[in-house]
Prior knowledge:
Blueprint: E1 3-6, H1 17-31, E2 36-39, H2 49-55, E3 59-66, E4 72-79
Parallel strand pairs: 1-2
Antiparallel strand pairs: 3-4
Amino acid sequence: MPAVLIVPDKFKGSLSETQVADAIAAGLRRDRPDLDVASVPVADGGEGTLAAAVASGFDLVPVEAHGPAGGERPAPSVSR
C-alpha cells in the first residue's frame, strides 16, 4: 500500500498546521482511498509551535517563567 507523510506548517492567518494537515489528508484520501496517510504538524519555533507539539502527542504543562520586568509569570510548556 502506498504511504504519504504530511508534515505542514501553518498557513498564517488562515489555517493552523493541524487544519492544513487534515485538509491535505482529506483530499488525498478522497482521490486515493488506498493510500496510507499519516501527518505530523510542525512549526518553525514561532507561534504555533506549542500547538504543533501538542498535536504530535505532547502535553501542556504550566510553568512559572521570569517576565521582562523580572517577575514570575505563568507560561505554557510541553512535556511527553
